[in-house]
Amino acid sequence: MEEDLIFKKATLALGGGIKLPEGFEIPVRVSHSTSGPGAGGDSVAFSFHGMRVKKSVSYDRGEFELHERDDGSLYLTHQGEPFIDEIRFDPVVYHCPEQAFFTLDPRCSFGCAFCASPRLPAADYKGLTDEDIAKKCLDAYNEMHVVAVSLTSGVMDNDVDRTADRFISCIKAVKKVLPDIRIGIEPYAGSESQIKAFKDAGADEIKLNIQAATPEIFAKVCPDLDRENILRCLGHAVRYFGKGHVTSNIIYGMGETHEDLEKCMCQLCEIGVIPTVRSLRHNKYNGESLKKAIGEPAPVTPEEMVEVARIHKDVLSRYGMDTRTCKTMCLECGCCDLVPFRDL
Ligand code: SF4
Ligand code: SF4
């Protein structure tokens, strides 16, 4: 991918919303997310030059502006200047393009400082049953291009076992109606037996997030989670799911250095886990909790996002790992990050 486009994706991914032309009819369903950087907001996905982003849209304002030519093609300007010459809407299945990605329960009793999900209004909890989710997956599969089902969840009442059971029952319900669909899960797991049970139920990929590059930052932003146990569970996950099917997310922009980040990526690669990296996003839900936990670090810039993506790609290459072995969740979607081997 051209340098210029990589930088533009970073600018878009980190920047504000997109202003739509007056009276423009959005040709796709608008997505209301309860997880990921856009949690709590309405957004749509776009594709341009083989890349994807998910952005909030509005008729009133936006850092970027969408324009329609007479032939119906679309382009973007940024602060009044030409930015992306050709852009399209990318239909969201559930939460993201080409995947039915569900949050089983956004409510969470763990107070990770960066996480918007547990701070969302109660009305955002949709209370879908396993059967509701399985039916939605099947209907979507019959109507749209769907490559995977992905599931995430918060942990209610500190009950990791009950959350694990919910993942397992939901995986089974989806497998019943779509036996061949690839399923990726992002649970907070507590034990080896849970990891094995996820695999036995039919999950193909698992993401157990290490969240912060250093134990010190982790202790500040995830005071209720156990970093050592996450690392142990990642080791179990590689044994049950296989190298190339286990990922772990590191959020950057929380005061770590690039050396810290690289070291954490290497630590994960050494045990066969593909690190994923996500820049910290400040929003109305996490502002206060982040300030209390880590103060007010400078926002991640597009230049830094590109630099981190290069470090990420270099580390993966050194360990013979590739993001394309993962076909579910964020690596497959790619809307919020620069993904090595896909975007650069
Ligand atoms: S465990 Fe932490 S990151 Fe996960 S949903 Fe709960 S608060 Fe958010
Ligand atoms: S990259 Fe992940 S968090 Fe972002 S829209 Fe895609 S699936 Fe959601």
From TrEMBL:
Q: Which UniProt keywords apply?
A: Iron, Iron-sulfur, Metal-binding, S-adenosyl-L-methionine
Which SMART domains does this UniProt record tie to the protein? Elp3
**Transmembrane segment boundaries:** none
Occurrences of domain Radical SAM core (ranges): 94-318
What Pfam families does this protein map onto?
A: Radical_SAM
* An example molecular function term from Gene Ontology annotations: metal ion binding
Which PANTHER family has this protein been placed in?
3-METHYLORNITHINE SYNTHASE, BIOTIN SYNTHASE
Q: What is this protein called?
A: Radical SAM core domain-containing protein
Native species = Methanomethylophilus alvi (strain Mx1201)
Q: What is the lineage of its organism?
A: Archaea, Methanobacteriati, Thermoplasmatota, Thermoplasmata, Methanomassiliicoccales
